[in-house]
Amino acid sequence: MGGHPSGWSLNYKKRIMAVSVDTVYQRVLALANKEQRGYITPQEFNLLANQAQIGIFENYFYSKNLRNRKEPNRTNETDETDIDELLARKLSPFSIFQTVTSGTTFPVNGTISSVARPVFQYGVVLSGNEPCQKVSVFEAQRLKNSTRHMATTAGRAPIYCDSRTTSEDIQVYDGGVDPVTSDVTVECFCTPRSVEWAYVVVNNKALFNANTAVDFELHISEEDTLVSNILALAGIVMNNPDLTSLSFQAASGEQQLQNQ
């Protein structure tokens, strides 16, 4: 099951521009070659670019968690300075809702833009179209001892908990003491597809091949962060402290702009 159930997501995907892999590579080369700090081959760049992309992607979840803990009682009002709105836009291209097998087992892979990729993190669990509240295994057991309490979860306040069965991930309760076995879905955040600066060799020179290249799937605002992170990784790989220092300078300037 792909896509978001009605009412659960704004359609950000069509409005988000990917970051050009060629633009990032050319910027990295320009900075690395300045004052002869070193040359980064396409193969090296692809490895470092994918490492930088997954690092930025993972950081979205830490940022989201930090925001939720610092501002748990935020209103639904948004404007152009809303960081939660921006985080939602950044994560949206990687999010799909998929069926939970037998209501208990999470999917391990998802398909986005016709590309299969592993699921990195799971989000909201739905029973039908209702969001489920997670409770501890012990709280679920306590509630199951009260038929009256379990009846209140029917169709409006379903709950779920981690499963104690090895082959299962969760157990969902929606109106009764027996776990739900169908019509359960979960939001899956899949990893970005692998980046590739593709090329053809002409006169012993690598020329960019836009037909087979794969751009970054990150939000357009991450271009500067990608450049600085790739330079930092290149400095470590090439044992070149100048590159690492250069990336820190770029990151510092970027941070000042973000603060402003």
Question: What would your notes on this structure say?
Answer:
- Helices cover 38% and strands 19% of the residues.
- Strands 1, 2, 3, 4 and 8 form a five-stranded antiparallel β-sheet that branches. The protein has a three-stranded mixed β-sheet with strand order 5-6-7, with no helix packed on it.
- The protein has helices at residues 21-33, 42-70, 83-91, 137-144, 147-151, 223-237, 241-259; strands at residues 95-99, 109-112, 115-127, 130-131, 133-134, 159-162, 170-173, 184-190, 199-202, 205-208.
- With 260 residues, it is α+β, with helices and mostly antiparallel strands.
- The chain starts with 20 loop residues before the first helix and ends with a helix.
- It has a domain at 17-70 and 84-96 and 194-255.
- A hairpin with a 7-residue loop joins strand 6 and strand 7 (170-173).
- Residues 1-15 and 251-260 have low confidence and may be disordered.
- The protein is elongated, with a radius of gyration of 23 Å.
- The chain has seven helices and ten strands.
Concise summary:
The chain is an alpha+beta fold.
- As a percent range, the share of strand residues is 15-25%
Number of E-type strands: 10
Estimated structural class: alpha+beta
Average pLDDT taken over every residue: 83
N-to-C order of helices and strands: HHHEEEEEHHEEEEEHH
Distance between the termini: 42 Å
Low-confidence stretches: 1-15, 251-260
> Helical segment tally?
7
Q: Residue share in helices?
A: 25-40%
For this entry, give a set of tags.
alpha+beta; disordered C terminus; 10 strands; five-stranded antiparallel β-sheet; single chain; 260 residues
